[in-house]
Amino acid sequence: MRTLNLKMTPLKLPAASRGESSTCKEVSISNSLASPRSKLRRMRSRCMFKAILPAALLLLAGCASVQTPAWQARPEAGPDRGATAPQARPLSEKEKKDAAALEAWLKTMKADPREALKAYKNISASMPDRWQVNYDAAVAYLRLNEPELAVTELNAALGKDPAPGVVYGALGTAYASMGKKDDSAEAFKKAFEHGPGAEVLINAGGAYMEMGRFDEAIVYYREAEALAPKNPALHYNLGLWLYRKGLYRKALEEFNRASVKGLDDLKVSLCKAQTLLRLGRYEEALGLFKSAAQMDKNYFYLHKQIGIIYELYVGDLNKAFEHYNLYLSGIKGDKDVESWIEIVKARLAREGQ
Fold first, then answer.
1. pLDDT tens by residue, 1-23
2. Which of 263, 271, 305, 336 suits a disulfide with 232, CB 3.0-4.6 Å?
3. Which pTM was predicted?
4. How far apart are CA 287 and CA 204, in angstroms?
């Protein structure tokens, strides 16, 4: 029996350098669709529907937010609201020099993290007590997909006083990249203790989603909703949570809210399409998948998915034949799809097309 299955996993917004916006990165977990209502379901081997989709955005608390500065975690310490802030003392010449060097290093970090790490030893030696140096080095390692080295630097940052909750947030992201889900959730909880904010709550919810602990995940998402109800990443995550619970209409509403509030890209479109398939709205789903294929012409796997929908859900064999061949033009040697093409050709011949 051939069915469409979806892989969905928490999308991580990689740790951002201080003052810089984050960008999205994709990873995946699995979920499955219901069998198509077709006689062909008795004729086909199972087909995995492997769209790479995010399941929970991991936002780095304390960094500049992609959407609004209000999402940043509160400072770890500071005067009470309404109180007058203490007068800052003038910086010494050494402090001014260190600040300028750190700023220049941070600019290099944004442009070329590998190049910035070449100067890391000198920067670290001149500012041994600055947790920011270790943190920024950790961000560079995360961008270079070296989370183990990032964890080393973040633990070093935590040994310096006072290291803020943003370090725990980055540590949670690093552990998540390493597949250490329990450590990731614990780090995000500590980040929340240091400075409660929507990003930390979303991160914690995402960590619990990855562990399949959905009842705990929703607690964090609802708390985040109270702090930042317009956060598009939150609505996206809620949509994925509802999808996993089988509440497809409500999930679609949340995906639409995420789009309206600024998170309208390929990943959201694919989530919408998958949900529409669950709701039996095949033509609408097909339209979104086709649009996604136009957005990324090298995403050949989409043509396999489109072909399946045309063949099993819509009943257009000519279109199924076309898209199966488009898929094989980029993905060679898929014996299953080659056999499907032969079956489609035989059916077309019998129908005189």
1. 455 555 554 444 445 455 443 32
2. 263
3. 0.62
4. 34
